[in-house]
Amino acid sequence: MSTARTALETEEHQALRAAVAALGKRYGRDYMTTVIREGKHTDELWAEAAKLGYLGVNLPEEYGGGGGGMAELSIVLEELGAAGSPLLMMIVSPAICGTVIARFGTEEQKRKWLPGLADGSLTMAFGITEPDAGSNSHRITTTARRDGDDWVLTGRKVFVSGVDIADATLIVGRTEDARSGKLKPCLFIVPRDAPGFGRNQIDMELHAPEKQFELVLDDVRLSADALVGDEDAGLLQLFAGLNPERIMTAAFGIGMGRFALGRAVEYARTRQVWKEPIGSHQAIAHPLATAHIDLELSRLMMQKAARLYDEGDDIGAGEAANMAKYAAGEACVKAVDQAVHTLGGNGLTREYGLASLITASRVARIAPVSREMILNYVSHQSLGLPKSY
What we know:
Elements: H1 11-37, H2 43-51, H3 70-82, H4 89-104, H5 107-119, E1 124-127, E2 143-147, E3 150-161, E4 168-176, E5 183-191, E6 197-201, E7 212-222, H6 234-270, H7 282-310, H8 314-343, H9 355-360, H10 363-366, H11 371-382
Parallel strand pairs: 1-4, 2-4
Antiparallel strand pairs: 2-3, 3-7, 4-5, 6-7
């Protein structure tokens, strides 16, 4: 399937795409479905991607990374997804946590975490969502209080990916401002074995190697160096992690959509019911062409968001990242739906590997923020319309 991207990407980016696509092809959807069926993790693919330098391509060179940015990391995830074997923890570990630590962490935190995040030997989860807060980060109730030189965290988190395999979790909590008495967001690195840090797996209909967890922080005591960055710059630091999250979620959705569309196009080219392959009929061909267009448009916005972010324009990147995530989520769901429909009954068989994507494709619409909240963002921030809340 032809994908026009040469005019916008450098030769280095094109070479990275080709190399990652080759890696993804060696694993593919069969590897992913086997891992899921056997209840395992994508250890082999994660290790090989790390060895080739793909996992830490966005992290600083002085800490073992590739010295690139979100433009490069999004290419890696998109191409792995297009091969049918996306690595969800790439969104969390190098993109969110790695970026936040690289931008705002102390020198000690950078030395401790970034080389491992870059070479895949360390992984970090990210906990922001709470049972009663949903998408409203202002309602986060996980609080951190000072106790001497230590911090003590108390609260709950839900839908935290990969906590069982993560060495630590970057937790978004809130501290009380001594001057105003108001709560302000702060980020803390919580080691997986910290006393009082409990986890319970959430039983999901979504089949994926990465499991979802509810976290309970029961007076988790942390040393002063667990705080990432400046206590007074928590909101800035938080959004520095959320923009990459949205860019990478877009890459995740685009990759999945491309995989599904590729399967459908191959089937439509070869499946013959009457005299011609079914792909010759416009009722089959046009919806697939529309899905392709929507995925390409989504990539354009993702590339814009990545470039703005990598250039340091956090405000501009915020708008573009939200739009990219929205567009990719919609394009992914439509591409998967049309792919399954194109295959008919075969689209629901294990052999073709599309049916499980019906559930998985919804993720990019729901997480990390719903499409409705993105529409709120665009209507308020981009269009200047008044808030209803």
